[in-house]
């Protein structure tokens, strides 16, 4: 699947990304992902965009430093997004916070392993990395994130 590439942050040696008008897509935003919490939905959309840039970079076989940066960007953004959710969990006394936070830790551990294996060892990223990103993200939104919607809405977050 492809969509029009509307933005690309890669400058050097990423000509296959900057000169094209379409981008390969791993995850397409869908209404089924919507939590109807504007702030969180916007973060999820951005995270999907980052996963798609990573996917496209893998397919295009961009230079190692570009791929390394996309992995680092995903890791950093996931950390910010997770801390934002967790701030609300604490503020609202969300009862399922411990299991939800454990899922966040699981993701962070895996993305750090991916980063370490690729960046430090210059290994080829196996297809299971893309499968992990796709499945973890979609399952997490559809199952875990949907559980906190009522708590957020009860506390005035929409």
SSE blueprint and pairings:
Blueprint: E1 2-4, H1 15-18, E2 22-24, H2 38-60, H3 64-92, H4 97-121, H5 127-154
Antiparallel strand pairs: 1-2
Helix pairs in contact: 2-3, 2-5, 3-4, 4-5
How are the strands of the largest sheet arranged? Answer: 1-2
CATH superfamily: Hemerythrin-like
H-E string: EHEHHHH
Tell me the name of the CATH class. Mainly Alpha
Mean pLDDT: 85
Low-confidence stretches: 1-20
Give a written overview of the molecule.
With 158 residues, this protein is mainly alpha-helical. It has one domain (2-154): Up-down Bundle (Four Helix Bundle (Hemerythrin (Met), subunit A)). The protein contains 5 helices and 2 strands; from the N terminus they run βαβαααα. It has helices at 15-18, 38-60, 64-92, 97-121, 127-154, and strands at 2-4, 22-24. It has a two-stranded antiparallel ribbon with strand order 1-2. α2 (38-60) runs antiparallel to α3, α2 (38-60) runs antiparallel to α5 (127-154) and α3 packs antiparallel against α4. The chain is globular and about 45 Å long. The two termini are 32 Å apart. Residues 1-20 have low confidence and may be disordered.
Descriptive labels:
158 residues; mainly alpha; 2 strands; disordered N terminus; Four Helix Bundle (Hemerythrin (Met), subunit A)
